[in-house]
């Protein structure tokens, strides 16, 4: 059993805070930057191939969503930071691949760090991915390491003009992104629950020691998911208090709804944790039960055979004067006696349910 | 052991919030809508067979209770929503069959989500059912998936004019509905306690492994009930603070009483959880006790028979010069010695209480 | 093991709140109502035999203490309620024999529900009894199911004019009643502690399985006492905040003292719970220790006898050419060898402390 | 194992609060009252032999420290109470030998109850002692049951004029007393930690059952110390808020320091509790380990000897036609076979580390 | 297993608070005092060899960082205290080598106590080191027992003029020091996690008892780190509230960032603690599993050999009339029967997976 989440890369000792060094997971092959401009009537998407191209571009429509993924190039980030006047700490946080979910209010814009998870293919590890949002009055920047994953459907809705996404402002777009992240958790917790149920069936049937290791891993998965969801809940809780100018009053109801969903997710995790700890108890008890059965069998067999062996031993003694030995039916009588003893003891144990 | 509550259907990924898709349990055969109008003097009940019929109907009396069950038709719900000017999020919540108990204040009306439970027939699963209330200044809407169940007696009292239900306003009706829901919990927790007591008797008597699985299930039932009751308590706690215009001052005392009842229920559940965890300890200890008894028996039997078998073995040796073998009473002496050893060891163990 | 506190009778489903149906324990043979009137100078006690008699009576002195016990007659309670203008919910609470300790402020008077406990005779159950107080500006009503028990000494002090009870107002009488209830808890927790100590002595000595059941029961008793004391502490905490007009400033110090006593009681219970969970661990360990001892004995005996039996078996073989068999002292040599092996193994185990 | 702290004497049932009955531990032979008067320049100590003598005495210097120990005489206390105008509840609390640490503000003076502990001689019990302080604007009264113990060094510093004790007012003296009490805890927790370390060494070495009982006792000691320190921390926390006129602003920094020390002590206890619960786990595991070792030995020995015994048995059979028996080297071959089997099995177990 | 953190030296009983006695770990060979003066343009470092030299020195530049290590000389500290007008309690705290992390506001300056940790060489103990900061408006004093360790890189950045350290005031220097301390924790927790992972691999493989002792030690390390980090988080939390004049508004964002890092560290520790408690469960279960395997083997071997031994015993009996003995192939038939029984039983156990 390995604990991948214990291996965390931290800021190197003594570096000045705010210095931009890429950290964390190996970078994907290529960074990709796409800009979606929109107003109530239209929507235009531009994908930038080079930093230069991006710096020269002048957007035409009032609302902007800049979506960046696989970003590991400090220079690129620096350029974006200058364009949108971001604080160096924001840039440092974005480069750092292990950030707790949090909300920082920098006055002109909000910085929100969140994390999503994915169960990967055959190996059973829960892979985290950081998602960062910068929410200004008329723009949203989103940063993640994998292409569009979480926001794919949202981009489609925006481009196709479905729902009221274009009518409402940047705050509704930001809410929709948080909502997409929460929906993503529903998916991964579904996966997680499926694993729990699957393990549940194994616990009583199997005897192998790896059941326990798998229970432990699921327990840790639950902890990790919880540790990402609880601060996310706090972020939403803070947002619903309505103290941030970026979010208008009308969006509050939606944020409150998203907040309720995080509560729901956290309760679902609590539920799963209890099931898992029940599995642990079942496993322990099954182990002890098996020992009980083995010992019962050993005891019964020993008790039945010991007297028989003793009798055989007695009539194997070489005393001169052992009258039974000379009776014609002595041998048959003794074999009969042995059978009788075995049957009587067997019945006895059967009645006491030891067999 | 299956964990039905782990299988939850969540909003599908990326759908715009507020879109109306029916979710959750399979629908009952038919939706049913009934409207009860009343004032202090009279009360009239109308059952609608079609949406059209309902939309055309004009109520005559000032107070309205619209009771809807089995609702899975988004169009129908949309119509009701327009008639009473409900926010899309309310409609979405009502269609979602897995909603945490909560209270949302939408200004003109309050939306309260609650959940009730039922132990079903032979299979032992605790089946949840959502109950939603929308409380306006002169109307109450109630939504549930099963016909009238929880509110049956309440409807009767209203129709027959018993109690002060008609004299007091919509807030008293709403309180009475919350009270009926709480009463329902008293019933299901009674059922739950009966199961705990029944299991209590089984723990020491039985040896089967399913006792443990049943203990685990009861533990999870307790958790689920608790997880529904605690937010319900919070809803009542918020209501008793008297900040909602829908509830008049005179109803506060009743709400406080209902709040006390939820406290009582939660404590009763805590109590049951402690009993259950005591059962777990008893079960574990009974298991270990059984092992102890078996090992004691094995040890005693082995200790008694081993020396006897050795003696028999010794006198089965074929040495030329073994004088005892030639004594006339040698055989009888040795058999006597064996009996003596067996009796002495038996007494010894009996005095040490190993037998 | 039965859990009497799981069997609770709850309000019947759907009844209008405030309807007066007697509930809970079977009634004592007779209700009894006594009225004590007093001022600083004198004190008069009247016992009423019938409802009519009570309704007609006009008290002469300014301070009133109406003490009712065994009350299960709704009509009687209704009459008292009308005379002192009590809210229907108060009357409902008094008839309900399972009320959480609480304080309700009805403006003109305070309603306090408390609970006392008694260990009964030979059977070991902790029997609860409800005590209700209604505290007005110049009267105190007390309701309980058993005759005077808790307030016996208080009544005597009042009648005999001891202490400053008559000089101070109704609030000091009410305080004295709460103090008497707390003193009662000191008594029952003394009893409880005696039981814990008694069990402590049994745990290591005895092997019977009922020790565990008794540990579990004591644990549950501790929980029940705690669950009554914690809300009682809250009642006193609220009273000491001095927001209730019924209690004058001078009485605050006494209430704070009573509050300290409840803290003390709760800590004493915590202490006992830790002792009990220590007992559980001792019991479990004693069980496992016993298994250890048995297995050690089994192992030692087996190891000593197995080689001896093998040797005897070897010299019982029927090979033609076994020179030892024909040595004159062969038999004695082998017996000597067996003794030697037994002694050496015995010493070995003795040195390793296995014997 | 006895739990001395479970035996607590409580106020007798129904007595009027404030009545002065001595309670608790048996009194020391003699009460002793000493008065220290001082100002910045001088300091005078007077010891009173009789109550009369004390009542007549008129102090000359502005600051007073009246130190009383072994006080069990209600009349004496009453006299002191009248002289310093103490509330009856203060006097009752002082006579009660089991008082939770607390701070009561009586306006003119503060009443502080604290508790100190001592490990006594050979028997290992933690003996509590109550220390009460009454802090007025120019006097401090201290009450304890043992002679000067805790305040010995403080008295010396005051008499010898060391430090700034005489320069600063009664509040600094009171602070110094609290500090002395906290220092005393540092001592007793040192003792406690020494016991924990001592037990740590025993756990793996010893097999006796009393290790567990001692672990349990230490756990309870930790609880008791904690239960005295936590309210003491609260007392200091309240004092540092600076709402009490008796303490001047300059003393606040010192009180905050004392508050930090109580935090430190409580953390040290937490630490010790974790070590103790680790000891419990080690003990349990050592027990189970020992069982494992025994069973391994039993298994190995049984597996080695069983086939050998069977072989010996086979060649002890009396069939007419058993050719091996007649081979000249048959006996030696079989003995060789037995040795071979034993060696091979032995090596097998040795390689699997069962030996 | 020793618990070095239980051995703490506390202030000696009854000493006046504020008296300067060196305490704690043995002093390093030599104290060392270095002063760094700087402004935005330049930076000068001076190392003092004697107290006299330091007292005479007059700094030229506005910002001062006085870094003291290995300080155990009360006279020296007294001199520093007078120069910077420090309160005696600050000096006492600095001499005390066991101080909880805390923040004290003395008006003109802030006093911050923190603690760092180091895993030392081969022996596995976590060695604590105290670091004290005094933060004034234009100076920072730092005290630690080991040379520059934590602040080495920071000093270099300051001297070389890297980053914005010189441009910003003393508050940014103080923040940078706190940041360096937090970075140090990232390092030690990395070490700690490496140990946890290393142990993880040992748990299932090894059987030695010291695994458990090592698990216990890691658990205690986690506690100790946590106990230092939680109050450090509180210190930063208080600082970010911005109520201290020493820290300017611009530094708040950086402090908040440092605060987030402490949250991250604490969560990482929580994570590790859960992994460790999972290890404990794995260890316990592995132990019980091994017992299970042994018992299974014992049971199987016993069951197979017992009947065979009985058969051999039967045909070793000496009855006159045992026809089988005289059959020519009797011996071979019996040997065949024995083999048959062994094979059948073996198959049976193999199918039930007991082998």
Structural commentary:
5 copies of one chain form a homopentamer. The first copy, chain A, is an alpha+beta fold and 355 residues long. Chain A folds into 2 domains: 4-285, Beta Polymerase, domain 2 (2-Layer Sandwich); 294-351, Methane Monooxygenase Hydroxylase, Chain G, domain 1 (Up-down Bundle). Helices cover 54% and strands 14% of the residues of chain A. The first copy, chain A, has helices at residues 51-56, 74-83, 88-95, 152-160, 170-205, 210-240, 249-314, 323-326, 330-351; strands at 32-38, 43-48, 63-69, 102-105, 110-119, 126-135, 139-144. A 7-stranded mixed beta sheet of chain A has the order 2-1-3-7-6-5-4, sandwiched between helices. In chain A, helix 5 packs antiparallel against helix 6 (210-240), helix 5 packs parallel to helix 7 and helix 7 (249-314) runs antiparallel to helix 9. The longest helix of chain A is centred in the C-terminal third of the chain and has 66 residues, at 249-314. Chain A is rod-shaped. The first copy, chain A, starts with 31 loop residues before the first strand and ends with a helix. The interface between A and B is large, with 66 and 69 residues.
């Amino acid at each position: 059993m390995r604990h991948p989440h214990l291996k965390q890369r931290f800021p190197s000792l003594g570096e000045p805070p705010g210095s931009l060094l890429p950290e964390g997971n190996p970078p994907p092959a290529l960074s990709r930057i796409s800009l979606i401009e929109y107003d109530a009537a239209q929507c235009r998407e531009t994908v930038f191939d080079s930093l230069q191209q991006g710096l020269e571009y002048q957007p035409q429509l009032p609302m902007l969503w800049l979506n960046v993924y696989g970003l590991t190039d400090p220079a690129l980030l620096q350029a974006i930071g200058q364009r949108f006047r971001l604080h160096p700490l924001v840039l440092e946080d974005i480069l750092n691949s292990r950030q707790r979910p949090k909300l920082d209010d920098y006055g002109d814009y909000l910085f929100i760090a969140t994390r999503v998870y994915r169960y990967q293919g055959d190996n059973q590890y829960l892979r985290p991915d950081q998602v960062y949002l910068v929410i200004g009055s008329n723009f949203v920047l989103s940063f993640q390491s994998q292409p569009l994953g979480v926001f794919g459907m949202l981009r489609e809705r925006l481009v196709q003009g479905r729902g009221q996404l274009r009518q409402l402002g940047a705050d509704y777009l930001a809410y929709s992104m948080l909502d997409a992240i929460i929906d993503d958790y529903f998916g991964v917790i579904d996966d997680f629950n499926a694993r729990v149920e699957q393990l549940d069936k194994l616990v009583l049937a199997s005897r192998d020691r790896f059941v326990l290791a798998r229970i432990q891993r699921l327990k840790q998965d639950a902890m990790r998911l919880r540790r990402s969801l609880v601060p996310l809940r706090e972020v939403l809780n803070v947002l619903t208090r309505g103290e941030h100018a970026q979010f208008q009053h009308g969006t509050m109801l939606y944020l409150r709804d998203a907040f309720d969903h995080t509560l729901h997710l956290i309760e679902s995790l609590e539920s799963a944790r209890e099931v898992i700890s029940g599995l642990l108890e079942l496993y322990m008890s099954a182990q002890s039960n098996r020992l009980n059965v083995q010992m019962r069998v050993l005891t019964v067999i020993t008790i039945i055979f010991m007297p028989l062996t003793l009798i055989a031993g007695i009539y194997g003694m070489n005393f001169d004067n052992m009258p039974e030995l000379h009776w014609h039916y002595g041998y048959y009588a003794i074999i009969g006696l042995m059978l009788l003893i075995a049957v009587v003891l067997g019945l006895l144990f059967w009645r006491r349910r030891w067999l």
